[in-house]
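> call design_seq(struct)
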C-alpha cells in the first residue's frame, strides 16, 4: 500500500481509507449497510493485511453507532490503525448540539473518543461549514484539543473555496493550526472539486480525502444503459437524501462506456479503474472506499499497485469532461499565466 503526505503536513496516510458509514447501519444509513462489530473486525483484518490502516467515521453515522462498531473492531490494536472522524452536523435536540462552536466541538470530540474507545483521534474534520461561529473560535478550540493530545491533525469537509481560504488566513494571522485535509466529493461523474478546491489545495498545501469516489454508487459497474438498477444498491433507495447529486443519464452512460473500455484494456474492474483514476489526480492523498462485505472490499483494494496509462487517463478525462461555470471557463483561456491545475 502506497502512503502519501497529507497536505503540507508531516503526516502520512495510505492512499486508500476504509469508510465506516456501513458500520452499524442504524436509521437512515441502513441503505448503506449494517455491518456489526464481528463483521467489521473481519474487514479490519483484511485491510491491515493489505496495508490499509486508516478508517474514517463521523459522529452522525448511525447516531454514533458507526464509531462504536469501529471502536470494537479495532480494540487491542489501536497502535496499528489511524482514525479519522468528523463532527459539526446536529447530534442532539439542544440549541448547542450543532455547529463548530467551542461548546459543541469540545463535547463532540469527547463523545467520539468514548465511542471509539481511544484517547486520541489522528485526523479530526469539521463535517460542514458553520457560518455562525467565528473561525477564530473554531481554530482556537481545535488548537486546545491538539495541545491536549486529543486530536492530531485537522481537516474540513464540504467547504466552499472561500470558506477554506478564510480558515487558512485566520490560522496564519493568529498562529493557529492549519487545515491540512479537505474531505471532498470527487468522482469521474462529479468533478466540481477541480474548479476551485483543487487549485486552492495545491496552492495552500491541503490534501484531498475523497468521499463517494464511485459517484454515489453510479460507478460500481452494475449500472448500464437500458438495464434495471441492481436490487441491492444505494441507487435503488427511494429516500431523496441518499440519491446524491443529480447526474444526467446520458452523461453517466458515456462515462461508464469509457470505464468499460479501459477495464477491458487493463483487465481490471470498473470500480478499480474509477478509483485508480482518482489516485492520479493532483492533491489526492487518500480515497475513502466503502464496503458492505469482504467481496466489495477486496475488489476496491485492487485499485492500487498499478497505474492507468496516459492514454487511458485521457480517455476517461474526455468522457467525463463538462462545460465549467463562470469564471472557470474564462480562466481556462488564460493558460499562459493561469494554468490548470495551478501550481506555485
Amino acid at each position: 500500500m502506497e502512503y502519501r503526505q497529507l497536505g503540507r503536513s508531516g503526516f502520512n496516510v495510505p492512499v486508500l481509507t476504509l469508510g465506516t458509514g456501513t458500520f452499524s447501519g442504524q436509521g437512515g444509513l441502513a441503505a448503506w449497510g449494517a455491518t456489526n462489530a464481528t463483521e467489521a473486525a473481519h474487514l479490519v483484518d483484511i485491510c491491515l493485511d493489505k496495508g490499509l490502516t486508516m478508517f474514517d467515521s463521523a459522529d452522525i453515522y448511525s447516531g454514533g453507532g458507526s464509531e462504536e462498531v469501529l471502536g470494537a473492531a479495532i480494540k487491542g490494536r489501536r497502535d496499528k490503525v489511524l482514525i479519522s472522524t468528523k463532527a459539526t452536523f446536529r447530534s442532539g435536540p439542544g440549541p448547542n448540539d450543532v455547529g463548530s462552536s467551542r461548546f459543541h466541538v469540545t463535547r463532540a470530540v469527547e463523545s467520539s473518543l468514548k465511542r471509539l474507545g481511544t484517547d486520541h483521534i489522528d485526523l479530526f474534520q469539521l463535517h460542514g461549514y458553520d457560518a455562525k461561529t467565528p473561525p477564530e473560535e473554531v481554530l482556537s478550540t481545535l488548537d486546545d484539543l491538539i495541545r491536549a493530545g486529543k486530536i492530531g491533525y485537522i481537516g474540513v469537509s464540504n467547504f466552499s473555496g472561500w470558506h477554506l481560504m478564510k480558515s487558512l488566513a485566520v490560522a496564519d494571522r493568529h498562529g493557529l493550526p492549519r487545515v491540512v485535509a479537505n474531505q471532498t466529493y470527487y468522482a469521474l461523474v462529479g468533478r466540481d472539486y477541480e474548479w476551485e478546491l483543487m487549485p486552492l489545495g495545491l496552492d495552500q498545501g491541503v490534501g484531498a480525502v475523497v468521499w463517494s469516489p464511485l459517484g454515489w454508487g453510479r460507478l460500481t459497474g452494475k449500472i448500464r444503459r437500458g438495464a434495471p438498477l441492481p436490487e441491492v444498491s444505494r441507487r435503488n433507495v427511494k429516500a431523496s437524501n441518499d440519491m446524491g447529486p443529480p447526474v444526467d443519464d446520458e452523461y453517466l452512460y458515456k462515462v461508464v462506456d469509457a470505464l468499460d473500455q479501459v477495464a477491458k484494456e487493463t483487465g481490471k474492474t470498473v470500480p478499480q479503474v474509477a478509483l485508480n483514476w482518482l489516485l492520479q489526480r493532483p492533491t489526492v492523498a487518500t480515497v475513502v472506499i466503502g464496503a458492505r462485505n469482504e467481496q466489495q472490499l477486496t475488489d476496491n483494494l485492487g485499485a492500487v499497485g498499478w497505474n492507468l496509462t496516459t492514454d487511458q487517463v485521457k480517455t476517461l478525462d474526455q468522457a467525463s469532461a463538462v462545460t465549467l461555470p463562470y469564471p472557470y471557463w474564462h480562466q481556462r483561456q488564460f493558460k499562459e499565466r493561469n494554468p490548470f491545475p495551478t501550481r506555485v
